[in-house]
Structures are given as structure tokens and as C-alpha cells.
Amino acid sequence: ARWTVEEGWTGAELVPFGPLQLSPAAAVLHYGQEIFEGMKAFRHADGSVWTFRPEQNARRMMRSARRLALPELPERDFLESVRALVAADEPWVPQPEGETSLYLRPFMFASEEFLGVRASHTVDYYVIASPAGAYFPRGVQPLVVWVTDTYARAGAGGTGAAKCGGNYASSLLAKNEAVSHGADEVMFLDSETHTAIDELSGMNVFAITRDDRILTPRLSGSILEGVTRESVLRIAQDRGLQPVETTLLMSEVAHQISAGEITEMFACGTAAVITPIGEFRSQDGTWTIGDGSSGQTTLALREELTGIQYGRVPDRHGWLTRLV
Ligand code: PMP
């Protein structure tokens, strides 16, 4: 669909996957005025196809749109765009084996042919889909995470809480740095003091303590409000863990790992699901969480979340929406 200042949204249609026609002067290519979402469609054992909390993605996309001076797409149009694509691509939704799903990527960008720094008067919206397996090639093997004290993902007043391409562009060099230190992922600290945990390049971060608390950074404005993050907090509470959303100082976390007070850590997101963190590395040293293997509670939370998504566990919270 296309939005213009004069006409609003028009022209929603299903078209075969293929290259876009775009002017070399399209504003998005120069100024990065672009946002996106990430969601999944899951096939259940009876053949039906479902998605997980899509209204959360719709609302987050609206918040991202506002921050990037893009037009709002009504929630019902967002949901209908996803439903229509999955209905058309239904044969591509994989059988419910392992971690397979159909990954869905709604995105919106400034398509006006215009060089100059102002909000685009023409905006395009698309949804594409791709069958997906496990996010990490090693599956649920615990991650080695590099803590960068050089680069920040987002600053106060910036776009950290929006899901815009620029945030990911700014994370790539730090990710390369992480890989050069033998790590799977990079963890960002807050941009002001470089002391508090923000998030990984595409996942929120959690810690579980010996006394059954589950800790995660509070929504400071510089981290993404993950749909998985909020769902994990609810599932954890159902299991008797006490959720604590707070400022998590890396030095405190390192101390609590060494003292055995933090017994498990994990990262979570739509693509990565729930993935244990086995070790942190930084310029200052290395910290192994527990014995470095996948934590029991982490694996139980993961089993519960994927169980709901694939229809193996009752959908107690009413999180699933049927698509086909
Ligand atoms: N943080 C960042 C930076 C992300 O890109 C993602 C993935 N969308 C997340 C957290 C997790 O969000 P969600 O659970 O909604 O996928």
C-alpha cells in the first residue's frame, strides 16, 4: 500500500515477491526514514495457522511510525495485511517440527523522490514472509556475549525504543567486534554512563536469581519493548518467579554471577525465542553463568512459550490469533 499526504493510504494488493521500483533519490536511501516489525506464523498439529500477539506488533509499529515521522497505519489494516499474506502463502508455513515457522516482516519506508531533510510526503508499506528455522545455527546452545563499552545502540531522546533500520545499522560494527572476540552476540550498555545493561542487537536480556526473582532492564526509552519480553514476564510470574524491571548495572550483575546469586541468564525475541546466555566477555574479564550450560528455568520458560505458540500448551492468556 502507498500513503501520500493528499490521499492517505491506498492501493493495498497482493503481488508476487520481486524487486521494487524505487527512485535513486528515494528519501529512505539517504535519510533512513524506515521502520519494521518481526512476527511469526505457526502451524499447529491440526494444520491451522496462528500468530502470536499481533496487536502488540501493530501498536509498536504505530509508536515507531510516530517517532520516525511516518504515517500511522490503522491497527485493523496492519492485522489484515498480515492475515491476507499468510492466507496466500499458507503452503509455505512449515510443519510444526523443531522451531520452524513463517517469519513475517511488515515494513514502511519513505519513497518520495526528494533530497532534503524533511519527512517524506510519500510512504510505502509492504509485508514479506519467509520460512524460518532456528535463529542461531547451534540451536539452544548457550550464547557467548561480548559486552561493548565502545559503542551504544541508542541514546536518550533517540530512536532506541523504535524498531527502525538505523538502530541496526549502528549495531553492526559492535557485532563485528563481538565476533572478533569469539562471541555470538553483542550486549549494549546505556549510552550515557556505559554501566547499565540495555539489550542485545536483536533481543532483550533476563537474569534469574537463586531466590526466584527474574530481572530485566526497565523500559528506559533506549531499549525495544519486546513482545517476547512482556510475555516472558507473565509466564515467569505464572511459575512463581517475582518479576523485577529495574536498572541492571553490569558491575552488579557480574558480581552476582560470581557470587552465585544470579544462576541463569537468557536473551529473548521473536526470531531468537528464548536462548540461554552461558558467558559474558568484556575488556575487563570473563564471567560464566552457573556452569555455563542451559539453565533449567530458562528451558522451562522456553518450552512453555513455544508450547503456547505451537498449540501444545493451553493459550491461557489468549495470545494466539488464528490466520488460516
Ligand atoms: N530488542 C531488539 C533490538 C530487537 O530487534 C528485538 C526483536 N524485535 C527485540 C529486542 C525483541 O523484541 P520481540 O520480542 O518483540 O521480537
Automatic annotation (TrEMBL):
Q: Which GO terms describe its molecular function?
A: branched-chain-amino-acid transaminase activity
Gene3D superfamilies from the UniProt entry: 3.30.470.10, D-amino Acid Aminotransferase, subunit A, domain 2
SUPFAM superfamilies noted in UniProt: D-aminoacid aminotransferase-like PLP-dependent enzymes (SSF56752)
Which InterPro entries does this entry report, sorted A to Z?
Answer: Aminotrans_IV, Aminotrans_IV_CS, Aminotransferase-like, B_amino_transII, BCAT-like_C, BCAT-like_N, BCAT_family
**Tagged with keyword Amino-acid biosynthesis:** yes
Domain of life of the organism encoding this protein: Bacteria
Write out the pathway annotation from the protein's UniProt entry: Amino-acid biosynthesis; L-isoleucine biosynthesis; L-isoleucine from 2-oxobutanoate: step 4/4; Amino-acid biosynthesis; L-leucine biosynthesis; L-leucine from 3-methyl-2-oxobutanoate: step 4/4; Amino-acid biosynthesis; L-valine biosynthesis; L-valine from pyruvate: step 4/4
Q: Spell out the family assignment given in the record's similarity comment.
A: Belongs to the class-IV pyridoxal-phosphate-dependent aminotransferase family.
Matching PANTHER family: BRANCHED-CHAIN-AMINO-ACID AMINOTRANSFERASE, SUBGROUP IIII AMINOTRANSFERASE
Instruction: Spell out the protein name for this chain.
Output: Branched-chain-amino-acid aminotransferase
Q: Which organism is it from?
A: Brachybacterium epidermidis
